């Protein structure tokens, strides 16, 4: 059985590192990449073709739905850390 490939998208490097650590505990999941903003995330989705994108919706460089390539599942969340935009 192949693992579910996950792309982590968050502008906070400690958050990405923590999520990677949590996801590593499951053998059926693998983190195929990370992106610090929406523009890089779109490029990584096209390049890496993940099954799941785990993304903070309150980070810099947001993208519109039309610019996203096809992805199986997108899980979005509101970041836990405050930003200048809050």
What's the short story on this structure?
This protein is of the alpha/beta class. Helices cover 27% and strands 27% of the residues. It has 2 helices and 4 strands; from the N terminus they run βαβαββ.
Radius of gyration: 12 Å
Q: State the helix count.
A: 2
Q: Structural class given helices, strands, pairing? A: alpha/beta
CATH homology superfamily name: Response regulator
The count of β-strands is: 4
* Order of neighbouring strands in the sheet with most strands: 2-1-3-4
The CATH topology annotation reads as Rossmann fold
Mean pLDDT: 79
CATH class: Alpha Beta
Based on the coordinates given, report the CATH architecture.
Answer: 3-Layer(aba) Sandwich
List the helices and strands and how they pair.
Layout: E1 4-9, H1 13-24, E2 29-35, H2 38-48, E3 52-56, E4 73-77
Parallel strand pairs: 1-2, 1-3, 3-4
What tags apply to this protein structure?
2 helices; Rossmann fold; alpha/beta; four-stranded parallel β-sheet; 86 residues
Structure overview:
The chain has helices at 13-24, 38-48, and strands at 4-9, 29-35, 52-56, 73-77. Helix 1 (13-24) links the parallel strand 1 (4-9) and strand 2 (29-35). The protein has two helices and four strands, in the order βαβαββ. By secondary structure, the protein is α/β, with parallel strands linked by helices. 27% of the residues lie in helices and 27% in strands. It is globular, with a radius of gyration of 12 Å. The N and C termini lie far apart (43 Å). It has one domain (4-77): Response regulator (Rossmann fold), CATH 3.40.50. A four-stranded parallel sheet has the order 2-1-3-4, with helices on both faces.
């Amino acid at each position: 059985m192949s693992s579910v490939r996950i792309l982590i998208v968050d502008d906070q490097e400690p958050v990405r590192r923590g999520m990677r650590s949590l996801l590593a505990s499951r053998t059926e999941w693998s983190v195929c990449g990370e992106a610090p903003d929406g523009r890089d995330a779109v490029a990584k989705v096209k390049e890496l073709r993940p099954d799941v994108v785990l993304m903070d919706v309150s980070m810099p460089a947001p993208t519109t739905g039309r610019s996203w390539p096809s992805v199986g599942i997108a899980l979005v969340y509101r970041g836990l850390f405050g930003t200048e935009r809050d």
